[in-house]
Amino acid sequence: MKKAILLLMSVQFLVYLGFGIIIPVLPEVIVQQNWDNLHVGGLLTVYSLASFFTAPFWGMLSDKVGRKQLI
Asked: How many independent structural domains does the chain possess?
């Protein structure tokens, strides 16, 4: 049980680390690439919508198959 919690905690840490690094830096990268500012909002919107629509699917799949097999 301790290994499973350690694995889940490390996955959560990496996810939040990615959010903490990528989302704040993304606007600067897009401006340096000479893209429109609209691209920043578009990329974040697409990510949010994808998360919103796929979360129920992953939840249902983890209920059927089990979290350990999915991870």
From this structure: 1
